[in-house]
Structures are given as C-alpha cells and as structure tokens.
Amino acid sequence: MTGTPAGGLLQLDAAQTAGLLTTAQAADALAGALRAGLDPESCPQRTSVAAPGGELLLMPAASGGYAGVKIAGVAPGNPARGLPRITGSYLLLDGPTLRPLALLDGAALTALRTPAVSVLALRHLTAPGRPLRLVVFGSGPQAYGHLDAVLELRELAEAVVVARDPGRAGRLAAYARSLGVQARTGIPRDVARADLVLCCTTAREPLFDGRLVAPGAVVVAVGSHEPEARETDTALVRRAAVYVESRAAALREAGDLLIPEAEGAIGPGHISATLADLVTGRTSPGGRPSRPQLFKSVGMAWEDLAVAVAIYHATGANSET
After folding, report:
1. What gap in Å lies between CA 321 and CA 311, rounded to an integer?
2. How far is it, in rounded angstroms, from Cα 222 to Cα 231?
3. pTM for the full model?
4. Cis omega before residue 289 (within 30°)?
5. Which superfamily does 10-110+302-314 belong to?
6. What is the pLDDT of residues 211-242, one digit of tens each?
7. What DSSP string runs through 30-51?
8. Closest by alpha carbon to 272, among 221, 226, 233, 237?
9. Which CATH architecture has domain 113-300?
10. Across 110-126, average pLDDT
C-alpha cells in the first residue's frame, strides 16, 4: 500500500492518500483536533503566488506532535487539457525534530479534507429525522466527494444536480442513482424545496436566489477562498445564521461574507459561531427552524494537517518510527 524509499520518507500516491480514511473518519480527526484545543484563529494564513498556469498556494501548520505544509496549484485551464484543476503535495513532519515523515498527494488530501469539514459542520447543523432533499451545485470532484460524504451521514430523499454542463450534471445524477438515491438534474430554483444545498463550484457570482431558501434549510459553500468570489448571494447571507471555520480566515478570504459587508448589508459581527464553537459545545446552532443556516468554508491549513496525521497513523506509522 505504501512506499518507503531508502531515506525513510513514506510516500503515498493519490489512491493511497484517498483510500486510507473514510470521510467520516477524516471528520473525526478534525473534531479531535478541535477538542484537543487547536485554535483555528491562530492558524497561519494561506500564501498565494501568481503562476503562469494560475495560482500557487502554500499552507503551513503545526500542532501537537506534528507539522506540515501543503503546496497546491490551482490551474483553471487544466480540465480543458484533461488534467486536474488542483495539483500539489503535502509534506508531513515530526513536530519535535521537524524530520520529514511522509509525502502525500495534495490533491487527494484536499479532495478528502474538504467534504470532511462539511460533514463535521453538518453533524451539528442538520436536524435528525426524515431523509434530506439535497441540491448540489457543481459536477466536479468536490461535488462527487460531497455527495458520497453526505450519504455516509444521512439518508437522502432526493438529490438534484445543478451544473453549467448538462452532460456532466447528468453523469453525477446517474452516479447518485447508482448509489440508490432518487436523483435528477435541475435548475437553481430547486433550492426552494431543499433541506440541504451544497455549493461545490468555481463560480464567482451567486448560484441561486437566496430568498428562495427555506427557513431551517442548511447551505454549505466550499467553492471559493477569494474576497471577490462568492457562490451565495447577499439575500441569503443577510437571512442566515452564518458559521465559519475561523472568523479571521472568513473575514480575510470569504467573498460570500465580505461582499455583503462591503454593500452594508451585514456587519462584521454577523457570524454566529465557528466550527470549533459547535464541536466543543460552546454554542448551539441558532438557525433552526426560523432561518436558513449557512456554513462557509475557505479551507485551512490546520485541517490538512489533522487529516494528514490521521492518514499517516492509518498506515501503521507514528512519529517514533
């Protein structure tokens, strides 16, 4: 399963990185890090460097007995070339000695980490009960990953796929049906009947009319980390109880919140709580059933580290070997 060259560095390819943990196990690792006292507000911020093909991201973190850094490329033109939009590697180090321990596939780590963060939020934001009616925006790897992750968490009454490319939307709906879910393609107005809306796109403008989202519904937006880009509109943000991974990161990178704030529609105190608040019980969800609940994720380095450590342990390795 794993490869360890003479230098002792464990190397995991994409399949190995993706296959060692379920999304639920990755979410457990994130929750464990937060319960152990990790403070996302103190996490180093993402560094971005313009590159010929797009953007190069550097995401370092250190916590407990480990440190690590993800070097990720975001190349918007890659899908047209038959290549992945997200590339990169993750280097995991022993914390006390900073000795390199493992090199993981960065894109596969991101593809696991992002839905794991969403699932952790949904554990606290979705009310138990009947199967959920889902609308998912997007048809790329994160849309597939989030569909799989939600099915680990809850039963679905229906899944509706909304995407720019009808063919790709149809393929994702067919995939959902292969998993036993009643699924079809749809249009943005389908959010009006949804219990859960997942936004997994590269959109820079709102995907739907936020006035249509029902009170009590949950919206998860994961597609952007740029102040000028957003998947949700001002109407939804103004109505919703808003949850984020970190106030500092959200107010630095989340266009879904920064644009409404610049418009004067919300103030800096509009965020209801953080993921850590929910996980540690410092606060309870405040939206059900009177208003929608929005979880806006930008992706953070501490999350990559927590999941990378869990993957490393799943190989049977530890910091003393």
Report:
1. 15
2. 8
3. 0.92
4. yes
5. ornithine cyclodeaminase, domain 1 (3.30.1780.10)
6. 999 999 999 999 888 899 999 999 999 999 99
7. HHHHHHTT--GGGSPPPEEEEE
8. 237
9. 3-Layer(aba) Sandwich (3.40)
10. 95
